[in-house]
């Protein structure tokens, strides 16, 4: 892959993922492409069920083994296709080069092991040469990095509050200083004040460690605060992507993106009522041939129901729409 | 923690007092008496009454209750059997030891067979390692132990003639009974372990463990298993309790002199001292087993440990 520039850490091309059971096939991710620049943060935005987490799990190669299947595509990480890796090299990649922070800190820590044990385990596993003392020192260092007193390291997860647990999870993800951090709605389960703290901390750590980040969220506020680039996902497709400026201040948008912005309160303009997008996301087991957003779209054309829109781009900004694309209409 | 253990052991005292009271009360309201049972239907009523008086059976039941407890507390004396006129303790103890031996071997075997098979079936769900053992376990769990015991007797004693069919003199005598009581327990253990493991491997923290890059063996044996063990430990504890008092059928089948069989035999003679002493021993065992289960719980799960230390410092 010659076209992969050295400043791209993750490059996903034409990724398609399905969940297949005896009864039905869920088309979770449909032919998406995205890339993250080295040291940059990409925000992956979308409603629940848009395929964000599935994308993340595909990168980690942690899709449920009995149902999840990657049908198509490549995931180049640092110039190597992760989909070609065997189990062993994937294990040495996870946690060391790519790590992931999961959505719910309440359940993502193992209740029967101490915090020090769970962080130390990652460090020890990826640095087998370290002695016990060195591992322990590194655990202390990582904990103080996320703002937890190292004296609490021998406590169990149930002794920490939700925000503290998420800090522990983040510490666990960052302890080996990975090149890419995937944060799957890291603050959704936390209350607003703690959200702000955790986000500020993540931003700070990212800048300090130079980690690239994939920030999965449904909160445009978080995107504005933390991301360099944005990709908007809908029904397993990326319908618009670009820099934060393109998405937040640009002229042209996908109708779905416009809908997303209309559904959040804005302090600067006065609107009497929020304008949510009507309807629900299409059933991923029965996707149409046309644009997946067509049934909910206010500016839907005849062509939208018949054929899938092409991706058109203006510079770095890409839109997948018949009406609002960059092809002159 | 230690305070908690002491508390639990102290709780044994009211439990035992209650058990003794209940047994005396039940013996009092049920028909029949030891004099008639020993002398037989043809004996004259005055002879029967004389024997009952001699045994101390005709005293009011509360008085018997108080006397019995007084004897245990002051002299460590569990009384004399109405039927054999022997010291109850001497009569019960060897039988009790045999029952415990049988139960412990049975639990050990059923755990060693059932738990690893359950783990393996859960990890390899839907493969042949899962379906075949699960099917066999389902089949075995629905066969009563004595049927299996009879099959064993037929094959190994009658046909092959390699194992003794009755008695409890050597280890070889115990092989078939232990198998007969442990196979269905093993099947239960397997099903329990499997369902508990299946739930555990779907938890978020198991995914976290994989996301850390840990090899699959560590993920399963360290992260999933420890969480899956709690219900399995309860099941094993309950099984042990049941085997101590409930192995009567197997004991009879293999003519093993165990405690359950003894109690059942003596109920028809209204041999109160033996029945009560046997029941006390079983109750004490049951309580201790349950205490051990709780301690294992606390060892496995820090949240439970925290709860115990909080209650014990109050």
Description:
The complex is a heterodimer of chains A (about 325) and B (about 325). Chain A is an alpha/beta fold and about 325 residues long. Chain A has helices at about 50-60, 85-95, 105-110, 115-125, 130-145, 160-175, 190-210, 220-225, 245-250, 255-260, 300-305, and strands at about 10-20, 25-35, 40-45, 70-75, 80, 100, 180-185, 210-215, 230-235, 235-245, 310-315, 315-320. The longest helix of chain A has 18 residues, at about 190-210. Chain A starts with 7 loop residues before the first strand and ends in a 9-residue tail after the last strand. The model of chain A has no long low-confidence stretch (mean pLDDT about 90). Chain B has about 325 residues and is mainly alpha-helical. Chain B has helices at about 1-10, 10-30, 35-40, 45-55, 60-75, 90-125, 130-140, 145-160, 170-200, 205-210, 215-245, 250-255, 260-265, 270-300, 300-314. The interface of A and B includes residues 94, 113 and 158 of A.
Keywords:
heterodimer, A: 329 residues, alpha/beta, eight-stranded mixed sheet, four-stranded antiparallel sheet, 11 helices, 12 strands, B: 314 residues, mainly alpha, MetI-like fold, 15 helices, 0% strand
Low-confidence stretches of chain B: none
Largest sheet of chain A: 8 strands, mixed
Assigned CATH architecture of chain B = Orthogonal Bundle
Structural class of chain A: alpha/beta
* Rg of chain B (C-alpha, Å): 24 Å
Please state the oligomeric state of the protein chains shown: heterodimer
What is the N-to-C order of secondary-structure elements of chain A (H for helix, E for strand)?
A: EEEHEEHEHHHHEHEHEEHHHEE
Give the total of beta strands of chain B: 0
Q: What count of structural domains of chain B?
A: 1
Mean pLDDT of chain A: 88
Total helices of chain B: the number is 15
Q: Which outline of chain B best applies?
A: flat
Over all CA atoms, what is the radius of gyration of chain A?
A: 21 Å
Share of β-strand residues of chain A: 15-25%
Sheet with the most strands, sense and barrel status of chain B = none
């Amino acid at each position: 892959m010659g076209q992969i520039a050295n400043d791209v850490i993750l490059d996903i091309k034409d990724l398609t993922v399905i969940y297949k059971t005896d009864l039905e096939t869920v088309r979770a991710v449909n032919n998406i492409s995205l890339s993250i620049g080295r040291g940059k943060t990409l925000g992956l935005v979308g409603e629940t069920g848009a395929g964000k987490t599935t994308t993340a799990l595909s990168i980690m190669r942690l899709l449920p083994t009995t149902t999840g299947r990657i049908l198509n595509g490549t995931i180049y990480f640092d110039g190597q296709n992760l989909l070609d890796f065997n189990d062993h090299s994937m294990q040495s990649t996870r946690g060391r080069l790519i790590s992931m922070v999961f959505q719910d800190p309440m359940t993502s820590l193992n209740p029967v092991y101490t915090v020090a044990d769970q962080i130390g385990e990652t460090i020890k596993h990826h640095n087998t040469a370290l002695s016990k003392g060195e591992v322990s020192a590194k655990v202390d260092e990582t904990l103080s990095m996320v703002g937890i007193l190292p004296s609490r390291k021998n406590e169990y997860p149930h002794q920490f509050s939700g925000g503290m647990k998420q800090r522990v999870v983040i510490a666990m993800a960052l302890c080996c200083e990975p090149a890419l951090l995937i944060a799957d709605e890291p603050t959704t389960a936390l209350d607003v004040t703690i959200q702000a703290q955790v986000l500020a901390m993540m931003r700070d750590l990212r800048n300090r460690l130079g980690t690239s980040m994939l920030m999965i969220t449904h909160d445009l506020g978080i995107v504005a605060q933390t991301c360099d680039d944005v990709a908007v996902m809908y029904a397993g497709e990326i319908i618009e992507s670009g820099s934060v400026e393109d998405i937040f201040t640009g002229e042209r948008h996908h109708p779905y993106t416009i809908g997303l912005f209309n559904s959040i309160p804005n302090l600067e303009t006065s609107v009497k009522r929020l304008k949510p997008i009507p309807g629900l996301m299409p059933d991923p087991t029965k996707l149409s041939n046309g644009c997946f957003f067509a049934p909910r779209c206010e500016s839907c054309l005849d062509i939208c129901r018949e054929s899938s829109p092409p991706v058109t781009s203006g510079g770095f900004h890409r839109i997948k729409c018949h009406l609002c694309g960059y092809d002159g209409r | 923690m230690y305070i908690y253990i002491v508390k639990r052991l102290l709780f044994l005292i009211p439990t035992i007092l209650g058990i003794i009271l209940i047994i005396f009360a039940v013996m009092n309201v049920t028909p029949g008496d030891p004099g008639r049972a020993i002398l037989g239907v043809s004996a004259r009523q005055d002879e029967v009454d004389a024997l009952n008086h001699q045994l101390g059976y005709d005293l009011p039941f509360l008085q018997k209750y108080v006397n019995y407890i007084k004897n245990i507390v002051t002299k460590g004396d569990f009384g004399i059997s109405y039927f054999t006129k022997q010291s109850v303790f001497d009569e019960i103890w060897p039988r009790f030891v045999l029952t415990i031996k049988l139960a412990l071997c049975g639990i050990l075997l059923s755990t060693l067979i059932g738990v690893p098979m359950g783990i393996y079936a859960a990890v390899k769900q839907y493969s042949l390692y899962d379906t075949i053992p699960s099917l066999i376990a389902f089949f075995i769990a629905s066969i009563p132990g004595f049927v299996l015991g009879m099959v064993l007797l037929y094959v190994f004693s009658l046909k092959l003639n390699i194992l003794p069919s009755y008695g409890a003199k050597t280890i070889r005598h115990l092989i078939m009974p232990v198998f007969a009581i442990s196979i269905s327990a093993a099947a239960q253990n397997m099903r329990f372990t499997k369902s508990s493991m299946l739930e555990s491997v779907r938890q978020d923290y198991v995914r976290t463990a994989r996301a850390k890059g840990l090899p699959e063996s560590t993920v399963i044996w360290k992260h999933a298993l420890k969480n899956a063990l709690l219900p399995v430990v309860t099941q094993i504890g309950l099984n042990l309790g049941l085997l101590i008092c409930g192995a009567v059928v197997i004991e009879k089948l293999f003519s093993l002199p165990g405690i359950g069989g003894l109690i059942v035999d003596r109920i028809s003679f209204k041999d109160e001292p033996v029945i009560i002493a046997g029941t006390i021993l079983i109750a004490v065992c049951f309580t201790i087993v349950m205490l051990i289960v709780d301690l294992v719980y606390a060892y496995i799960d820090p949240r439970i440990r925290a709860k115990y230390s909080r209650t014990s410092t109050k």
